Amino acid sequence: MTRVGLVLEGGAMRGLYTAGVLDVLMEENVLVDGIIGVSAGALFGLNYFSNQKGRALRYNKKYSKDLRFISVLSLLLTGNLVNKSFAYYKVTKKLDPFDNDTYLKNNKDFYAVITNVKTGNPEYVKINDVYQDLEVIRATSAMPLASRMIKINNELYLDGGITDSIPIAKMQEMHYDKIIVVLTQPKDYRKEKLSLKKENIIKRKFKKYPLLIDAMFKRPEKYNETIKKIIAMENKKEIFVIRPSKKLVINIFDRNKEKMQEIYNVGVNDTKKILKDLKKYLEK
What we know:
The protein is α/β, with parallel strands linked by helices. The protein has helices spanning 15-27, 40-49, 55-62, 72-78, 84-95, 100-106, 134-140, 168-173, 196-205, 210-235, 257-283; strands at residues 4-8, 34-38, 109-116, 121-126, 150-152, 155-159, 178-182, 240-242.
C-alpha cells in the first residue's frame, strides 16, 4: 500500500496559506498517512487529522485584536508574544475547541519539529494526544527572540524552524512512498545571511548556548540548501510541492483580518489550480 507523507513548513502568519491548502485537501478527501509540521505548519496542520476545516483561519481572525492572543503586551508581561494560557490552552480547549477525539481516532502519525537549545539539534516529537502535548506544540513555534524557552522532560526547546525549517529529509527517512511538501515562500525565495546587528543580539541573548547560536547562524545556508534539494526532487517528480504563487506579505504583528483572509485565499486558489496534477502524482 502506498504511504503518503505531508511536510508543512512554518512561517508565522504565512501559515494561513498552509491552512488554505489543507482545507482544500480536506474538501477533496486527499488522504495522508503522516505529517511532519514545523512551527505554524504544525499548529495549523493538526486540524487536518481532526478534520476541522476552517478552524485555523476562524480563530486567528476572531482573536486578531485580542491582547490576550498575540501582542506586544503579552510579550512584556509573560515573555511570550503568543500568549501561553490564552492562545494555546483557552482557545484550544474552550473557545474554539480542537477535536481531540477525532484526532485520536484518526490514529495517524503527526510529528512536530522542535529545537533542543543545548544541543542545537532538531528533535521530532510524535503528537499522540494534542491536549496532553500542548507544550510540544508551543515549543515548535516558540520564536527565539519573542518567546521564553520551553522545558520538556528537563530539556529546553525553541522553534523547530531554527534547525529544520522544511523536514523533507526526515520524511524520506520514514520511508513514505509519496511526499507532498507545502511551502510558505514562492519558488525564487532564498534566506539572506543574518545582519551583524541580529547576530550580536543572538550572541547576547543565547550566550549560554553556543550550539544554538551556531544553528541560528547557519540557518539561512541550510534553508537554501534544502530548497535546492526540493526543487531537484520536484523536477524529477519524486515529490509534489505546493508553494505560494506570489510573495505573502504578512508578519506576526499584522492582525489585519482582511490580510489574513487574503493569505488564506491564495492557499485555496493555488491548491485548486494544481489539484489535478496532485491527484495524478498520488495515483502513479
